[in-house]
Design goal:
Length: 441
């Protein structure tokens, strides 16, 4: 069943098509391992193939383990495949596929075939690391808020006061530096954790898909276009959803902090500016629904286009013999035009959300200060700068919200393409998810 397409896709994705097995050790390595079990504490200091597995917290957080590779690239002005490390043992598709398969069978045992949810299985697969990433993101949001809201405000009031205390001024500067350091390091930790988690889930899901597809006896309902889209496009959507999706969790926290602080600091007039930020989130939810809708339509059209192209390539001699090139070319152009129209509409929605996010701070600040002055309240430079700084700290959550919403929407569509569907083969009935990917034997 399409062995060439599957082999080529497997080589491109770097996935193993063999049944998932834990890596076996040679006899010499077995003897060393058995000897090391006599001293369990030595296992803590074993060296791994990839330097990221030996990196400590600060090395992993600051990506210091990449320094040798960056230095080699700087000295040589180029890198070859021999300079790049091998794949980490924790990112190998075989090990992660075993874990995903175990979680899937556990889900089937607990809830049955009808109640089993693939989304729940994916969440259980990466929930611990996702919670660590969300915690790092919350630290980033808190550090980015405390710096301008408290420390910068104190520094502005200190610069305007007549009493001068060098120690207090230095303490404020050091505090701002530590907050920025904490913000940058926690954000880097979030990205480092998310990228590894996304790579593990993507490798596990695609390898599991390859293995289950190869078990099918009948492929009458499956086309090469569907296989290619599932094993390439949908896998990438899962990767993006895991790596970017958790950024959506920082928005509500920053919104609550900004709303509470500006109301306490500036008075009820700050509610107007905070309300503008709050109204922006339902707009993002609407954009998410539109993005998911366009994505579902585009996937169906893409499958039809790829299927048509495979039919043309399979019958190219027959088409050339009867001079049907123009007719088939028009069919391909028609399907491609429909796909392009859907992509353009999705791009318009995405560009609007991305373009509106940066100007929300300006609109909120202008509306807040205008209302504050119109009601007769005084507005000092320290107050104005502090409010603008707080609004700017809330901007990061707004800027990443469209990207997170888009990745989660497309990831949800990708997961929905793995939903339960029955396919009858010539020899046995196989209950599977979509095109035989997650099979209940």
């Amino acid at each position: 069943m399409f062995p060439d397409a599957l082999d080529a896709a497997g080589r491109v994705e770097g996935l193993s098509l063999s049944s998932p097995q834990l890596p076996h050790l040679d006899e010499e390595e077995d003897s060393e391992t058995s000897g090391s079990h006599k001293f369990p504490h030595l296992l803590l200091y074993s060296r791994h193939q990839h330097p990221v597995d030996n990196a400590g917290l600060f090395s992993f957080m600051t990506l210091q383990w990449l320094s040798p590779l960056a230095l080699r690239a700087y000295k040589q002005s180029s890198l070859s495949l021999d300079d790049v490390w091998g794949l980490s043992c924790h990112e190998e598709s075989g090990v992660n596929t075993q874990r995903l398969e175990f979680l899937w069978h556990s889900e089937l045992k607990m809830r049955g075939r009808e109640g089993a949810s693939l989304k729940r299985v994916f969440w259980r697969f990466c929930q611990t690391r996702m919670l660590v990433a969300i915690f790092s993101l919350l630290l980033t949001m808190v550090a980015g808020f405390v710096g301008p809201a408290l420390l910068v405000r104190e520094l502005l009031e200190y610069s305007q006061s007549s009493q001068i205390s060098v120690q207090f001024g230095l303490a404020l500067v050091v505090g701002i530096f530590l907050m920025e350091l904490m913000r940058s390091w926690s954000l880097a930790l979030m990205w480092a954790v998310n990228y590894r988690t996304a790579a593990r889930l993507r490798g596990a899901a695609l390898t599991f898909a390859f293995q289950k597809i190869l078990r099918l006896r009948n492929t009458k309902d499956i086309t090469p276009g569907e296989l290619i889209n599932i094993c390439s496009s949908d896998g990438q959507r899962l990767y993006e959803a895991v790596s970017v999706g958790c950024l959506l969790a920082g928005g509500p926290l920053v919104g609550i902090l900004g709303l509470s602080y500006t109301t306490y600091f500036l008075g009820p007039t700050a509610l107007l500016g905070s309300a503008i930020f709050i109204v922006f989130y339902p707009t993002m939810m609407l954009a998410s629904r539109l993005t998911a809708y366009f994505r579902r339509k585009c996937v169906a059209v893409t499958d039809r286009r790829v299927r048509l192209m495979n039919e043309i390539l399979g019958c190219v001699k027959f088409i050339k013999m009867y001079c049907w090139e123009d007719a088939f070319s028009q069919n391909v152009h028609k399907v491609r035009s429909e796909e392009r129209s859907i992509l353009e509409r999705a791009g318009v929605v995405q560009s609007l959300t991305v373009g509106v996010a940066p100007i929300v701070v300006v609109i909120a600040s202008v509306c807040t200060f205008t209302l504050h002055m119109a009601l007769g309240y005084d507005l000092t430079a320290a107050e104005a700068f502090t409010v603008v700084a707080v609004f700017n700290s809330m901007t990061f959550a707004l800027k990443v919200t469209p990207l997170a919403v888009r990745s989660l929407s497309e990831g949800a569509v990708a997961v929905s393409r793995f939903q339960v569907r029955k396919i009858e083969t010539s020899t046995e009935n196989i209950r599977c998810l979509y095109v035989g990917i997650f099979v209940v034997d």
